[in-house]
């Protein structure tokens, strides 16, 4: 059993792949082995979470996820605990493995009840796993709501019930959970939905148990990549070794966004950072950060630079984009640059042609910007974040970073997308996206390939928020930029 953290590197498999893997694993073992192992793992984790529990409520569903619950209850009873099982569905319709585990729970002397116990120290959610097909209703919905409302710890078996294991979306009517009360133990494969969209809150701390089956050779649906390796700097290097970044943005009243990106590029290790402001009346120097070289955006020669384009850029950036596409050695497109592209078919074609040529290019939309680029609603983007990021990467031939909880980084090639596990809601404050764009710019300027530059900067950006002391002042974008690691 392994705890999954932002430092973990692993493959993720969707439900279809998990089913294939489960069938192959099951066929190679004596009947009922996988469920016995799964139930034992649940019981061990339950005992670790609530070692002094007097009552453990085990809510079991009508499929094999419920079977894991019956098995866990049997194992807990054997170890002196008092599980109370409530179950949904017709006993005669249980799949064979689940039926056998139900019998084992009965033989172990587990208490069965028709309603949940009024007091309990831990709830085990074994209602639905990867077989969830529709929104829970009736008793199942009531029990999930009770787990949610009680504030007691919940241990989710395989997948939080009602969460789509592929996409991380919650079924209609299921209340969003609070991650601090939640633990999920998932079996055989790690599923992408546990790590993006609403999955992070629903699953909380995720543990993985391969049920003794080892790793699989199938092509993963996505990956978690873990902490990036440090990029050591040679003694005999100089500022030219780390490249130039040119931030293009900062229309009237929005210079701050461009300066934040510039600061992040600077602290992220770029050799030199220019900030090309679109506001002609902007001050000639940022006295707080005199290292930044402020210029008129229209005068910058980008042919040997990494351009970070769009932060606070307003509509004015649209007319500069054709030249940026054709001249920038490497490019990060954010915010208003993305909005301009979304509104203009010619710019879309030009970006796709740049992407096709292989010039390093990263786009960093938040869900609304992604929705505009894809001509969809935000809801549709969030309903399948992996597909949205893959779609953007394929359409424009660029690396697409779809931001938000469980940021997705997709490449236009064959590599599976990355879901980033660092970061938290401390980042939900204005300007943190500008900082990310600057950090990716610094990594590109230093010569990192576009996909690596994006995923490494996304991880570092989130890691700063994860290691921000709980008792410190709120993490502002300015502070985040100054913490950007080289
Ligand atoms: N077999 C093995 O080797 C191993 C299996 N393992 C475990 O099995 C789990 C997968 O089991 P599973 O395929 O039986 O699916 P599961 O998630 O229990 O749900 C299906 C049942 O729920 C029902 N149902 C669906 N939605 C519903 C709703 N809203 N409200 C009410 N009912 C609803 C659905 O009914 P139907 O849609 O057919 O009407 C069907 O009866 C997996 O996540 C892992 O925990 C592990 O032990 C590893 C080894
Ligand atoms: N709840 C969250 N969990 C993880 N990361 C988050 C969360 N909220 C925001 N972020 C991150 O913060 C950044 C916000 O970017 P963006 O929405 O473009 O903000 P802005 O436009 O104000 O700079 C993104 O990198 C996003 O992934
Ligand atoms: K479950």
Automatic annotation (TrEMBL):
Source organism of this protein record: Variovorax guangxiensis
Pfam families, alphabetized: Carb_kinase, YjeF_N
Keywords recorded for this protein, A-Z: ATP-binding, Isomerase, Kinase, Lyase, Metal-binding, Multifunctional enzyme, NAD, NADP, Nucleotide-binding, Potassium, Transferase
PANTHER family recorded: ATP-DEPENDENT (S)-NAD(P)H-HYDRATE DEHYDRATASE, ATP-DEPENDENT (S)-NAD(P)H-HYDRATE DEHYDRATASE FAMILY MEMBER
Residues that bind AMP: 403-407, 433
HAMAP family: NADHX_dehydratase (MF_01965), NADHX_epimerase (MF_01966)
Alphabetical GO biological process terms: metabolite repair; nicotinamide nucleotide metabolic process
Domain YjeF C-terminal: 222-486
Gene symbol of the encoding locus: nnrE
Cofactor requirement: Mg(2+); K(+)
Ranges that cross the membrane: none
Residue positions binding (6S)-NADPHX: 64-68, 129-135, 158, 257, 310, 366, 434
Protein name (Swiss-Prot/TrEMBL): Bifunctional NAD(P)H-hydrate repair enzyme
Family note: In the N-terminal section; belongs to the NnrE/AIBP family.
Organism superkingdom: Bacteria
Summary of the function given for this chain in its UniProt record: Catalyzes the epimerization of the S- and R-forms of NAD(P)HX, a damaged form of NAD(P)H that is a result of enzymatic or heat-dependent hydration. This is a prerequisite for the S-specific NAD(P)H-hydrate dehydratase to allow the repair of both epimers of NAD(P)HX.
